[in-house]
Structures are given as C-alpha cells and as structure tokens.
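Hi F.,

I've been meaning to write this up properly since the lab meeting, where we talked about keeping a consistent format for the predictions we share between groups. The idea is simple: the sequence comes first, exactly as it goes in, then the structure tokens exactly as they come out, then a line or two of notes. No screenshots and no reformatting. I'm using this chain as the first example so we have something concrete to point to.
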Amino acid sequence: MNIVKCQTLDGQPVEFVNTDDPLSGLMKEVYFSPDRSYVVAFYKKELDATGMMRLTKLVGEYRDRLYNSSSGHYWQNLFCWPDAIVQHDGRTGIKMPVYPDHFFFQHGSFDQDKLKLRGKDKEGKWFAANKPRQMLDSRELGDWLSYLRICLKLARAVRRLHLTGLAHSDLSYKNVLIDPVTANVCVIDIDGLVVPGLFPPDVVGTPDFIAPEVVDTTHLAKTDPQRILPSRLTDLHALSVLIYMYLLHRHPLKDGKKIFDMDDDKNDDVLRMGKGALFIEHPTDHSNSINCQKLGKGQLPWHDTQHRPYSLTGPYLSKLFTKAFTASLHKPTQRPVAADWEHALVETMNLLLPCSNAQCQEKWFVFDSTHSKRGVCPFCGTRHAKEIPLLGDLMFWRNNQYHREQKEIVGYDGLSLYRWHINGLFGYDENTLPEEAKRLAYIRYHNNQWLLVNEAIEDLSDISNAKAPKPVPIGSYISLQDGLMLSFGQVNGARKTRVSLLRAN
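Output, unedited:
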C-alpha cells in the first residue's frame, strides 16, 4: 500500500493511499485515507485566486457558521462538507469525511447484483426515476414514507444553505446521495457553492434540473448581462424537480407528448426544458401531457399520470407542485422556497395512513378527508379496512383565545403524538432538543375501539361538555368517539381538537 503523508494548509497531518486508478469525476480525483475515514480529492486543473478564496471560506467561515451553532450536529448528517485544503506535489485538493455506510449499496441491483452496484455510492439517480428503480434489488427501495422523510431533510438542507447566503448551483440527483432504507440524505459537491457577487458558479448545472431561464440563455457568453447563471432561485427549481421525482418517480417537464421543434431534436430539447417548458400535469393546458396509452413496461406504473396523478401527494404538496410548475415555472422570484416545501412535507406526514395491504410496496399514503376516494391506497387500490380517527378542527390557544388552523392529524393504530402535535407554537426541526422529542401520547386500536393513551400530557381533558370538562390523567386513556372534543391544555400554544371517525369512501 503506497501511503502518502502530507499536511493541510493549517498544518494538520493527512494521509492518503496513492493509486494509479483513483475515483475520478469531472473535476476531481479522489483518494481514500488508509482507514477510509476521509478522502482527499485533488482538482484536475489548478485553481485560480478566486477558486482558492472560495475554498478557504468554505472550509473556514462558512463551515464554522454551519457547524458551530446549536444545531450544528444536525447539519453534519446532511452535508458532506470539506474541512481542510491540501496542497501536495503541485496539486490542490480538499479533505472531506467519507459518507456513512448506509450511503453505499448493500444489495445492489436485481438478479444477485447483476449490475455490480454493491459498495458503490447511492446516487439519487437510482431512486428518482421509474426505470432505474426497476433495476435495483427491492430491499434497496424503501417505502413512500421514506421518500417523504428524504425530501423533508433535503428541503431543510437547502433552506439552511440559502439562509447562510449560499447557493448550491448544481442541485441534482448526482449531487445528492439518498438512502431510502434509513430515510437519510447527504448533499455533496459543496466545493462549488455560489456566493452572489463574490463567487460565481463553475457549472451551468445538470440536465433535467437546470431552471428554464438558465437553459434559455446558455447560448450567450457568461459575461453577457442577459445570461442567467445558477443561483438561489435556480436551486429552488431544482429542489421542486427533485421532490416531484422522489415522490412520483417521473420528471415534471419531460416525456410529454408535445413536440416543440419537429425539425431539430436539439432545439426541441432546449425548448422543452427552457422557454417552452410545460408541466406534464398542467391542470388546464394538456398539450404536453403524457400519452398514457403508449407507455412501455419500463415506464409503468409511475408514468401513468391518470392512475398516479400528483394530487396523490395530498393537499399541501399538490398546491406547491402546481405553483412550482405552472404559475412560477417561468417566474423565478415567485417559486416556492425551501421552507415552503419543509412546511408542506411536515403537514403531509400528519395525513399519512398505513395501507391495509401488507404486500403494498409503498405501505403509506395520504388520507385526504375531502377527496372522493379517501382511504383508498392510490398505489395498490386497497380500501382501508377500519374507520379512521381524525383529529380535526385544530385550534391553538394564544392571548386568551383560540386560533383556528387549517390542518388535521390522521390517526392510526400506533400513531405517536409529540409536543409539536399538541402545541401549535412548536415544530420538529433541527432545533428540537432530545427532551422535546419524547412521545407524550399515542393512539391504539383495542377491542374494536380507538383509544388515546396519555403518557405525559399534564392537562389533557375531554371538553365535549364545556361546562364540565373531564380530565384524562397521565397513565389513563380515553375512547375516541365521533364528536369528542379534546383539550391538550391551557398553556400558550396548546391545541384543542374535534375527533371524527371516518370510513374510506
């Protein structure tokens, strides 16, 4: 083993295994440390002064701003952030931690790993589109809830980048690793981050994720004032596309039937993804919809928008998809921001229901109480077997009065309730402390009735009779009956709710 010893620019010792066949990408060659705990990635081309300044700020100021905070531990799991600059033998590189084990394929592809994927990175491209997913061992795929959790973590990561004043510039499934088994995500290729007015983008982006306004101006010189380059606003388009693809496993603009230029295939692609970009599920303009009658086996079932429309993602996400790919598709400043997606994903998880079919691949779906087919799994068609307890008409207590919320919580056997469920002033995010993430109550189906078991809610009460509220002490339970009114307390933010028992339509 040929081990090279050198130092980082700040004097820390570094070792890497020199090999004639390093991992090689477009811009860097990657070498592992002897214990494989970190890598050293050397640039193929020498960096200019601006490039060195960017790296210096990334491993210093920007890294400190992210990690040296009360929530720094949370972000360490979502970014593969370089921590030092290395210069050796006339080359410049960066030192980065190795991804956790769950970001490497354990089972790989179909037929005993025919594609030899075991041990390779879990690039998001394997999970975003229908056809690559069909090539994977089913044990690598996870279920629909795992993709919701992945999207939530990704939205948080992008929100944090933008809050720091940074843009990724090449957000795509190539630069995002995901693991559906553990529902984890890791944003990589951090060294190309864009700082407006200071560090311009090095790349235009990855096809399929480049914003329409960038595609439309790629023919112009970079110095042309009309040329639009990657930025925070183009990240927002890429984020919307990624979330759509991870949840629906198809691209929102491609594969439609519309022909934009019959005589020039290259221009047809430019128009399809640029100036002429049109949502394949546009609610009023169906000219670029997918012809579901001509779908091949490799496109089913996810490309069948008639049976798996984007509305299956529920009211919160559907609203953002409509906005992202219709009204704001060509209006960058009006795109949903990362925090919008984060909120929609959290609220969508409050509407999830486990499928009654044990063989269902996706296992979870959104229960929309207003939908004509509520309680029917859109993935396997199974109607939910039991009545469904719904905590609706949610209101929270503040300034001596209740404030109505436009949200609901769908109950099921085993649903845990936490602080952010019973109090409208708390959320579950990177700032949530371990003691704030303890279960306070749970729902159980027992002897043909739904029960709410109070584990740690100090002031839970049945307020169905407002004049004579009945306490539900810690350690006891209450039967969830249709019309039951519950109060989770009188402290600031405490919610009250009306219970409904609904059947699948």
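Notes:
The mean pLDDT is 94.
The first strand starts at residue 3 and ends at 7.

If this format works for you, I'll send the rest the same way.

G.
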